[in-house]
Amino acid sequence: MVRTYDACTGADRNRYSGQQSSLVADKMKCIICFDGMAYYFTKQFSVYGLGAVDYWRCSSCGFVASKTHYDMTDAQWEALNLAFHSDSNAREDNPYNRNQRYFNQALMLHLMERGELLKRSEWLDWGSGVGNVSIQLQQWFSLQLLNFDAFVRPTINSVVSANLKKRGYSLVVNTAVFEHVRDRKTLDEIESYVSQDGHLAVHTLVRGQIPSDPEWMYLLPVHCSFHTNKSMQMLMNQWKYTCSVYNEHSKMWIMFKRPSAEIGETVQRLNSSLGYEYFHFKEGFMDYWP
Question: Is residue 182 part of a domain?
């Protein structure tokens, strides 16, 4: 079966600044595998002061990044994100189908906890915004998800930066964050909160190859990093995750550090009880989208 990725997963994130990327003159290094990147294509924007945006691609892992966005100062980057999200969040038509996604992500986490794939201990949503996934989890499934966001005050279960615990959470969630991260330091920080035998949940767009198409639907004004199946597999290897599970309704991956055989058996049992392949499992990165 050929799968196509719909635009509903896109676009809703806060302003993640972070360090500037590794730029020397006109050169750029991949923040995933640290190999060199080369110019890929240009898209012309006419909103929020953006003009021509140059996207570069890593020949080793296929990761694509906007050199234009990576070159911005932190002040420029935050101003762009503030303008975009002020417009987007003010819309009443829910353009990116966020509400449906939040519920499906909460449902997925609930089923995994009930099925003993996830431990019921402290969970953290890093870059949570107001805490929409947490709200769904608490309202419908009586599960607590702590919320941290550097730019938006969560309305529920808020935790401040000073109280975050390195390797302190059995589950670290991040939704619509990876496509906004401009440096490796931030990626490593997110992962650093996962406990030694914990789990990392990632919601972003991942596919086999990023198209060199200026009209591609995921090229939003605030998206600057685009991940491939290969680049995500490299991250899993670097962070020492063994296997992963994906669910197409929530469009979220859960990565595991426990033995893959143990996870695979539990997933098979859960899918059997549900009557269909709700969880897609693979040793390594679950490359669901071509």
Answer: yes
> What residues make up the domain containing 252?
94-283
Confidence category of residue 97, pLDDT binned at 50, 70, 90: low
> How wide is the angle at C-alpha 207 spanned by C-alphas 84 and 58, nearest 5°?
85
Please check whether residue 5 lies inside any domain of the structure. no
Angle, helices 98-114 vs 260-274, to 10°: value is: 110
Q: Is residue 226 part of a domain?
A: yes
Higher pLDDT, 21 or 15: 21
Region of residue 48 (left: phi > 0; alpha: psi -120 to 50; beta: else): left
Type of residue numbered 25? A
**Which pLDDT belongs to residue 99?**
83
Which pLDDT score, from 0 to 100, does residue 120 have?
85
The residue written with tokens 């080793």 in the block is 60
- The answer to whether position 74 is within a domain reads no
Q: What is the 3-state secondary structure (H, E, C) of 57-121?
A: EECCCCCEEEHHHHCCCHHHHHHHHHHHHHHHHHCCCCCCCHHHHHHHHHHHHHHHHHCCCCCCC
What's the half-sphere exposure (Cβ side, CA atoms, 13 Å) at 155?
7
Residue 3 confidence (pLDDT) above 90: no
Domain count, the chain: 1
The closest of 31, 63, 2, 65 to 230, measured between CA atoms, is: 63
